[in-house]
Amino acid sequence: MTAAPPSEVPQPDPPPRSEAWTSLNSVVAAFGVYFCMYGYRKPFTAATYTNATIGGLDEKTLLVVAQVFGYMVSKFLGIKVVSEVTPRRRVSLLLTLIAVAWGMLLLFGLTPAPWNAIWLFGNGLMLGMVFGLVLGALEGRRHTEALAAGLCGSFIVADGVTKSVGKALLDAGVSDYWMPCVAGLIFAPPLVVFAWMLARVPGPTARDIAERSERVPMNGAERGAFFRRYAVGLVLVILIYLLVTVLRSVRADFAPEIWKALLGEATPSIFTLSESVVAVVVLAMVGAMVVIRDNRRAFFFGLGLAGLGVVVAGIALAGQQSLFIGPFAFMVLLGVGLYLPYLVVHTILFERLLAATRDRGNVGYLMYLADSFGYLGYVGVLLARNVFGSATDFLAFFLSLSWAVVGGCAVLLVPCWYYFATHPALRRTEREA
Questions:
Q1: How large is the angle between the packed helices 90-110 and 117-127, nearest 10 degrees?
Q2: Are 381 and 342 in contact (CB under 8 A)?
Q3: Model confidence pTM above 0.90
């Protein structure tokens, strides 16, 4: 029998300076890998794609739906794949997935519109599992919130940066259909470097496991048993996450259209600037949760942060409607309000639920369970908007959707809090503390 690799067995507790260096290296590697992945996913949204339609869908919506549908299918597949993958296979698998995703962008440029949309489906199908593979290298540690916040910061910042790259390539004369492929080439060299760093991240230490519980692959029976144990609470969290995912995704994928409606025209830099401000604010708040060592208390603080995000989003919408705040402040405040609950699920709720209850499992399973339904909801909203909504007034559609999401989240958070506060596993944790 061969020995398990270092990442699969508890590591000895390092001296403080070495531990700080390992954490820094881990977050840089995770941030870099996922940031570069966005270079294969999001640049195409910087284009408008108005040359063809099919099945009543405008071309931009058709392409977004195709990619998101592939992403959604990937999330459902990831419930099994990501929850069962072993640490030694993570990096090789994610590099393979991204390489195939770039191949899909090459075929997207070669195939006439609108039939090239099928390749964006394949692109999304490849990329949907990358996040879980990267997150698996960070979970189950005393500093997981800070590490995962750094990882999540990558998709907040990268969402703007990759649109800026795409817009710059379009301004330089690259066509709408070849721009995504060219953008992928730009991100390839740093991707390889960051993936090499991620492959060398050591596993959790003995002290990490003592405080956060050991994270292990889960088979189908274990996944089913875990879900049944917390079914009502998980359904409520997933519904909240679904609503936030829908609005966050619309805001991200149709940012050029929203900015145009608000300002008349958007410069490439505004995508990066607005999302960078959002990232700094949200990541500081979420990352600070590492100071709360009690897992049960941290879990409920996370729910409180999600509620704060809903309030901030409501303030942003009311301010925009009354013209009390300008377009830039509106987009930033709404971004903060959306990303707070979105990142709370990614970094705090599932991580601390496992740590508090000591249940056998991993965050990858729970995250992909939530993500799969989140993106299913997003596809549904995009299709419904084209069937029932106005094709011209996108801002009105966006604002109506925003109010619906804010109201729905506010209602769902109350029973979610009550369920977990009264659940025997978490009440037992309170007594033991």
A1: 170
A2: no
A3: no
